[in-house]
Amino acid sequence: MTAARTITFTGAGGFGHAIAPLRRGRGDPCFRVTRDGTIWRTSLLSSGPVAARISRTAPDAAHCIAWGNGAEEFVDVVPAMLGADDDPSDFVPREPTVAAAHRRLPNLRLGRTGHVLEALIPAVIEQRVPGAAAFRSWRVLVTKYGTPAPGPTPTGMRVPPSAQVWRSIPSWEFHRANVDPGRARTVVGCAQRAASLERLAARPAQQAQKALQSLPGVGEWTAAETVQRAFGDPDAVSVGDYHIPKMIGWTLLGHPVDDAVMLELLEPMRPHRHRVVRLLEASGLAREPRRGPRLAVQNIRSL
Questions:
Q1: Closest alpha carbon to 24 in 105, 120, 101
Q2: pLDDT of 259
Q3: Which of 29, 59, 74, 172 is the Cys-Cys partner for 50 at CB 3.0 to 4.6 Å?
Q4: Is the CB of residue 232 less than 8 Å from the CB of residue 245?
Q5: E strand or H helix at 3
Q6: pLDDT tens-digit profile of 209-239?
Q7: Which residues of the chain have pLDDT under 50?
Q8: How many CB atoms lie within 10 A of CB 214?
């Protein structure tokens, strides 16, 4: 099955910024970007697996063509995924650096997928470990337990595993992927509640975020990372992140800060605190000098 759709945005802007947070590292088997800027993405929807190619056709338009049983469902949701439903009309930044970032990217959009488990599981895998290690774990697990992508996709692309597959992955396979028992239990526990989690998509983002934090192993950071992607929440702050407080501190004050000070700095920007973080990152104005040792990578495969 094949389906296609052209999406026209209000004003020119890079839809790539809206969909970029869905990419889990450069080697993500579910997300590829070709040299001409075309984006390939796979997903497992209620109607089935899908692979899609998204390319720019005009400064304010993109074209999506999708293959697989989930193709029609995908083209229905792709405008929201690319940020077409995002409404930043009440966002008027006054802090000088944030205002400069907004001038650079006045049409930056926040996308939403509407799929909770798909955003939650990789966020769990990314808990408390460096990004490179988490991305490798995601790549290993999806390559082994995902399914081949439908359509003429780039070599090696895979569709993410279903909830049933996630909850059946043996503990030793998580170990081989360098996912410790705590995160593995959380992944399996979330997959066991897949149906309930997807129903959260009908709730307001703040309610869903609180509900997610009631799950064993899902804290404030993981819930925020999930609603940012699944709901496009412009205000969800990743409290507990290793880099973001330092980046906010260096960028706005010239020195690193902790979570508490970061939240104080971002408070006047509510309800667009996450939008501010994305603007600073995407505009190139974010600062975080590399000083001292990086977060150590724990290799549990040798234990």
A1: 120
A2: 98
A3: 74
A4: no
A5: strand 2-8
A6: 999 999 999 999 999 999 999 999 999 999 9
A7: 293, 302-303
A8: 8
Cα 245 to Cα 56: distance, rounded to the nearest angstrom: 34
pTM over 0.85: yes
Please tell me the total number of residues recorded for the chain in this structure.
Answer: 303
Q: How far is CA 67 from CA 54, 71, 248, in A?
A: 12, 5, 40
Residue 81's alpha-carbon distances to 63, 229, 279, in angstroms, are: 13, 9, 17
Map out the domains of the chain with their CATH numbers: 2-88 (3.30.310.20), 116-230 (1.10.340.30)
**Pair 273, 266: CB distance under 8 Å:** yes
Which of 302, 303, 295 lies closest to 128 in space, CA to CA? 295
- Distance CA(123)–CA(231), nearest Å, equals 14
CA 138, CA 121: separation in Å to the nearest integer?
9
Q: Which two tokens stand for residue 217?
A: 């192993």
Mind listing the pLDDT tens digit for each residue in 100-145?
999 999 999 999 999 999 999 999 999 999 999 999 999 999 999 9
